[in-house]
Write a structure and sequence with these properties.
There is one protein chain. The chain is built from 6 helices and no strands. The protein has 119 residues and is mostly helical. The chain folds into 2 domains: 74 residues, lambda repressor-like DNA-binding domains (434 Repressor (Amino-terminal Domain)); 42 residues.
């Protein structure tokens, strides 16, 4: 990924996270703007940020995080990475558990066979 596409990727992540957090708190764009700076942060700026038309500075991201009562990293982190990790780990754990269960059944069957021959 070149620096331009990395920048666009992370800007997209931030914009989506801001919108996701705002909607989770059932805030309108206007309410969020008023929490940040009633005299300066207009609803249209929040809209532009969420749509990726305006790239917020780190300071603006921090102000938005404070206004929503979340940590700034929550707006900067790519939640899909976490979701993918959970899916991969969950899948590996499920496959491992299935293999263990299969082996346990095989050992139990062998034990029963041996018990039959012993009688």
């Amino acid at each position: 990924m070149n620096s331009s596409s990395e920048y666009e990727y992370y800007n997209d992540v931030v914009c989506k996270n801001i919108k996701r957090c705002r909607q989770a708190q059932e805030l309108t764009q206007e309410e969020l703007g008023n929490r940040i700076r009633p005299d300066k942060m207009h609803r249209s700026r929040i809209c532009e940020i969420e749509k990726g038309r305006f790239s917020p500075t780190i300071r603006t991201v921090a102000q938005i995080a404070v206004a929503m009562g979340v940590e700034p990293w929550e707006l900067l982190a790519d939640s899909s990475i976490k979701e993918n990790a959970i899916r991969v780990i969950g899948g590996k754990a499920a496959r491992r558990a299935k293999a263990i269960n299969k082996r346990t059944r095989a050992l139990k069957a062998e034990k029963e066979e041996i018990a039959e021959y012993a009688h």
